[in-house]
Amino acid sequence: MADSKRMVVLVSGHGSNLQALVDASADPAYGARVVLVVSDRPDAYGLERARRAGIRTAVVRLADHPDRPSFDRALRDVVGAARPDVVCLAGFMRVLGPDFVRAFPNRIVNTHPSLLPAFRGAHAVREALAYGVRLTGCTVHLVDEEVDHGPVLFQATVPVEYDDDEASLHERIKREEHRLLPAAARLVAAGRVHLDGRRARFDADPGRALPAAGIPSEQGRQTT
Ligand code: GRF
Which residue, of 42, 44, 109, 181, has the fewest CB within 10 Å? Predict the structure, then answer.
């Protein structure tokens, strides 16, 4: 695995997206592996998933720092020491400040459970349901200094069913996130994402078959 790319994953909770990254990297052809999982919460189940997979973990708690900027810098230093090719926010529920974001320019990937720019913020699924949208989904995007705002890498749509509640809808959205996040993280880690303003273009990868049906095309088209 000498030339496999290094992924650092930040989690706050359940960690199913972390699991998707770990599972994807079990295939040597994936070309990247999770080298460190960091949480702001010592009780995050994602940390347990990491331990089970034999991945190093770290906890950086906001409460252990006098202010947000020093929390950001501590997080930056812990993540930076792992020399990541990509940093994945996989259900990390803290807004990252400029000290962190500037340390990894266009190397931080977030997954958000709505079709951005609709329903930014921490309650995207609840708000989409309450609004009555018929279609929602997820967005995997690069992180910039605004919340849920950076250039879009992949999106997938998820229909809202009449009898959905927040949990059932979020569960179906997560299934899409589990496919899109590993695909996006791998491209970023390999330096195969190029930006023209906000628009992302991906280098072709003829050597690798596309994963299961519904995975977004690596030519940059989206599928649902
Ligand atoms: C995901 O839906 C992600 O988009 C949102 O939080 C959820 C995390 O789920 N930010 P998990 O912890 O990966 O299971």
Answer: 42
